[in-house]
Amino acid sequence: MDEIKYRSEEEMKDSGIEWLGKIPKEWKSGRVQHFFITRSEKVSDKVYEPLSVTKSGILKQLKTVAKTDNGDNRKKVLKDDFVINSRADRKGSCGISPYDGSVSLICHVLKPLNKFEPSYVNYLFRNYYFSEEFYRWGTGIVDDLWSTNIDRMRKILIPILELMEQQKIANFLDMKTAQFDSIISKKEELIKKLEEAKKSLISEVVTGKVKIHGDKLVKRDSSEMKDSGVEWLGMIPKDWQVKKIKHIATMRSGNIITNESIKEEGEFPVYGGNGLRGYTHSFTHKGDYVLIGRQGALCGNVNYAHGMFWASEHAVVVSITSKTNYIWLGELLKSMNLNQYSISAAQPGLSVGMISNLYIPYPENYVQENIAIFFNNKTKEYAKTIDMVKRQIEKLKEAKQSLISEAVTGKIDLRDWEPIEEGE
Question: Which terminus of the chain is more solvent-facing, meaning fewer CB atoms within 10 Å of its CB: N or C?
Answer without folding.
Answer: C
